[in-house]
């Protein structure tokens, strides 16, 4: 199918393959795309694929096309379904000549100046897009887990305004550092990749937790980076476990059970809309014998946190709800033409086979238009209040529209 249409030049297409032979996989994917060269690409894949070989093959087959992607936990989702791994999937973006896309990649080994590094990374991407000194419509950010908050702060500082950011931290299947990033500039297992979008069509973004606060809350009385040492002056692990026991009557063993990640996250109020609070989430990565909790997002001493909870029904509905909420910002009721959706891996794992219901709700909300969705170990997005943030167990989305 050819996608060049004079009145509707911006178009999206997804394709995927389960072949573990990378040359065969990319050939299968490209066979579904027609003859037009894309303006940009996104590529997501499970951990069994060699990132370097994948990047090399995409660069060889589609030279001078900027692309970005990362490894995804156990599978990916597109408008064609939920695809359990091994799988590699690509979103192709076709756009007018007036548009621009630029990618950049940096390794973090021995880095001690994140603002300078991000500044150089953005300058590289702007140069790649031939848009030096301009403000992009959107930034797509992928990084290996670690210091995503610092990267986002540096991006905001660089541009001096809250440019919409969507992103997800690279994931593997079992939190064993088997994650990776790919771009047309190279690959990394410890780095940051971004792509700048200067699109020909309007877009809106959404970022939401979709969980409800319980009555259990407290103040972080000691924290550093991604470790909570104390809550209300007591060992953080003891307080967190007691909250879960009082709320749900369950005892969590000393060896943290991954299944609980999506059931009882920790919430920090990020703001309010119509007097109703909205939250940024994180979840424990592990418990320390001394009573500390290591989490997947930065926490601050003095922050108030709450135990959050979400039913399976909430988890099933929230991805389509985030898309719907983003679509509410579509004041001119333009037609949806494509989307990027970032879905937390922890929530996907808890859903199990119910992920099929998530797909059905998404495809209905998207009216069958193309989208791609990796499952990540951290999500970046723009809250309805305008601020960019990093969280866990979140859903982040960007929807592109045909203008009037």
Automatic annotation (TrEMBL):
The protein's matches in InterPro entries, at most eight in alphabetical order, are given as: FIST_C, FIST_domain_N
Pfam families, sorted: FIST, FIST_C
Where would I find the FIST domain in this sequence? Answer: 37-235
Signal sequence region: none
Identify the residues that the record assigns to the FIST C-domain domain, covering every copy.
Answer: 236-383
Q: Can you tell which superkingdom this protein's organism belongs to? A: Bacteria
UniProt-recorded name of the protein:
FIST N domain protein
Q: What is the lineage of its organism?
A: Bacteria, Pseudomonadati, Pseudomonadota, Gammaproteobacteria, Vibrionales
């Amino acid at each position: 199918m050819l996608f060049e249409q004079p009145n509707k030049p911006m178009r999206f297409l997804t394709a995927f393959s389960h072949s573990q032979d990378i040359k065969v996989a990319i050939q299968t994917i490209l066979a579904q795309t027609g003859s037009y060269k894309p303006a940009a690409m996104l590529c997501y894949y499970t951990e069994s694929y060699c990132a370097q070989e994948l990047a090399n093959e995409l660069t060889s087959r589609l030279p001078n096309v900027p692309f970005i992607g990362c490894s995804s936990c156990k599978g990916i989702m597109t408008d064609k379904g939920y695809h359990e791994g091994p799988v590699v999937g690509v979103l192709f973006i076709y756009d007018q000549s007036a548009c621009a896309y630029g990618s950049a990649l940096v390794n973090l080994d021995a880095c001690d100046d994140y603002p300078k590094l991000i500044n150089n990374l953005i300058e590289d991407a702007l140069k790649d897009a031939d848009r030096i000194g301009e403000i992009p419509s959107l930034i797509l950010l992928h990084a290996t887990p670690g210091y995503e908050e610092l990267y986002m702060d540096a991006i905001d500082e660089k541009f001096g305004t809250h440019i919409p950011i969507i992103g997800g931290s690279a994931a593997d299947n079992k939190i064993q550092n088997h994650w990776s990033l790919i771009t047309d500039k190279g690959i990394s297992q410890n780095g940051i990749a971004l792509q700048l979008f200067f699109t020909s069509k309007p877009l809106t973004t959404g970022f939401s937790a979709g969980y409800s606060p319980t009555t259990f809350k407290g103040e972080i009385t000691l924290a550093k980076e991604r470790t909570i040492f104390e809550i209300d002056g007591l060992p953080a692990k003891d307080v967190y476990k007691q909250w879960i026991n009082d709320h749900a009557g369950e005892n969590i063993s000393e060896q943290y059970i991954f299944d609980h990640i999506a059931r009882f996250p920790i919430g920090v109020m990020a703001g309010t809309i119509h007097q109703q609070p909205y939250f940024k989430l994180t979840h424990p990565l592990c418990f320390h014998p001394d009573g500390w909790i290591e989490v997947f997002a930065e926490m601050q001493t003095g922050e108030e946190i709450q135990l959050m909870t979400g039913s399976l029904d909430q988890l099933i509905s929230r991805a389509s709800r985030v898309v719907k909420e983003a679509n509410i910002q579509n004041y001119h009721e333009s037609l949806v033409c494509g989307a990027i959706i970032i879905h937390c891996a922890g929530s996907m794992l808890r859903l199990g086979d119910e992920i099929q219901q998530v797909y059905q709700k998404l495809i209905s909300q998207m009216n069958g238009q193309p989208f791609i969705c990796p499952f990540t170990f951290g999500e970046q997005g723009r809250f309805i209040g305008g601020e960019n943030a990093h969280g866990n167990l979140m859903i982040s989305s960007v929807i592109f529209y045909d203008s009037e």
